[in-house]
Specification:
181 residues, alpha+beta, 4 helices, 9 strands, 24% helix
Length: 181
Amino acid sequence: MARNLELKVRCPPGDLSIVRERAQQFGVSPFVHLRQVDTYFAVAHGRLKLREITPSKGAPSAELIAYARPDQAGPRWSSYQRVPVPAADASELRAALAETVGVAAVVTKTRDVAILGRTRIHLDSVEGLGEFVELETVIEGQDEGDAAEELAEVADALGLGAYERIAGSYGDLVDRGEGGV
């Protein structure tokens, strides 16, 4: 499985534009705008979600994502497996999984994504929950210490230390009714 180091923080309304400006000052790749619907399934171990993606430009896509990570506020290691799914087959796969294992939560969000080094920067507006920044530093050819250092540097550059750290997934927040808006 692939691995990354993640950090998720909740932002007050309007602060995503401040974080975007800070990211652009550090030379991130251009932000790409997406609409995503994540259907989380009720599984016994880890998490399983079907992500349906509609980009502002280009064709829709979908992927099944299985992942495991601890629920802790602050940086946390995640192991994950992404399986591409033809967009035309996503609704049938969602129905089959809903029938067999059940749906835990559905999360709808807009996401602006950019990359700085090996770190993906997600600026998320999540329906019913509010605004968040999520960082994911992918482990590719470097050790965990280097990944942790990069994540800390990016978080510091974006000023994320001032924001509330979130322990769970968006699906967990929806399931617990922890909306911020």
